[in-house]
Amino acid sequence: MRRSLVLLPIVASLSACGAIPEGRSPQKQTVSRSTQVFTPSPEAQQCYNGLGQSKASFTPLPDQYFGAGCSAVSAVRLSALASDDARLGVTNLGAVTCPLAQTFAGWARFGVDRAARQILGSPLVRIETMGSYACRTVAGRERLSAHASANAIDVSAFVLADGRRISVSGQWSAGSEAERRFLQTIHASACKRFGTVLGPAYNAAHADHFHVEVSASNFCR
Ligand SMILES: [Zn+2]
Fold this sequence. Notes:
The protein has 221 residues and is of the alpha+beta class. The protein has a domain at 75-220: Muramoyl-pentapeptide Carboxypeptidase, domain 2 (2-Layer Sandwich), CATH 3.30.1380. The protein has helices spanning 2-16, 26-37, 42-53, 98-120, 168-171, 177-193; strands at 57-60, 64-67, 70-72, 75-82, 87-91, 95-97, 124-131, 152-160, 165-167, 196-198, 210-213, 219-220. The structure holds zinc ion (ZN).
């Protein structure tokens, strides 16, 4: 049941990007594709194991190619992360690559939760996001965004156990001294873990979120 639901969009996207070779039946491609899809590469499996050890709740997703260079490969759907002693919710995420999920899990636990306890006196219970996968270019440019390969997450707010909600749009500039210091601290800790981090100090397009991305670069604004 679930398999057929998952496979339909893959067949459609393969057709759309011309990946089905001439003269071969789409039906046969579907079958071989499904075998491939549900057998993760050794690298992906190793990443899934690491993500499992971080106590994240997730579902591995079949590799998907959407055309126009957009894809979600070795990706997962994250339903929850974990702090030292509790479950951390995460909202509004689509597909994320496993390496991104693993980095995000480490940041949530060791960066965000600990800073929330130390600076705001309450543990983290939930991270709210504005999404992850989106087949699009970088705003104003032609090159594909890291979102087009499920390699970036836009993080918008942090909810604490005492009920406080610290949002990038609300508290980055206008929050209390502690709230502003919390956001600056977790932005800085994100920069130590992710290759690219963009926030309100970068440009107006990032006034309401932190863009965190697994990349080979070292760009922190
Ligand atoms: Zn982004």
